[in-house]
Specification:
single chain; alpha+beta; 5-stranded mixed sheet; 10 strands; globular
Amino acid sequence: MSLTAENRKYFVDVFMSWCASVRLEYDANNKEPYSYFGTVNEIVNYLNVKSDNLLDRYPMIALQDDLGLRQIKKFDWYEVSPTIYIFNETLENYDPQQRYDNIIKPILFPIKELLTRIIEESDAVSPANEADEPVFEIFKGSIDGTTIPDTVDCIKLSFSNLRIKNHC
């Protein structure tokens, strides 16, 4: 099959497909994760204007889209090193134990584990990636030095050289 713009899966398409799968499986008090992609500043701006109602923003999965892309093997595969954030609101007065008990453990970790499983099982991902685990970090109130006006907890997933099919 010849690779065309219609059958090519760009990484944003693959990411949005993963998020749709997460939404189908995840259900915590009818809160389905929202999804978005953009630079860190665009993600923060989106969170600022999306809604005055915090319930309409979180939880949210966001792709930092300023990522490098490298074609391999006559365009059958490409490699990306994406950064994905998973956000949920938290309370400013939570101590670390309350953040862990109320946000990180019941909301962020289950979404992270579900997303990671969906990525591992995705037809878009090369089997060569199966052994690669994303590196993750936990943030509060900012991502990569950019402050988020709402008080949020965030898990950052960083993948290196994730191999994706060009058409899947």
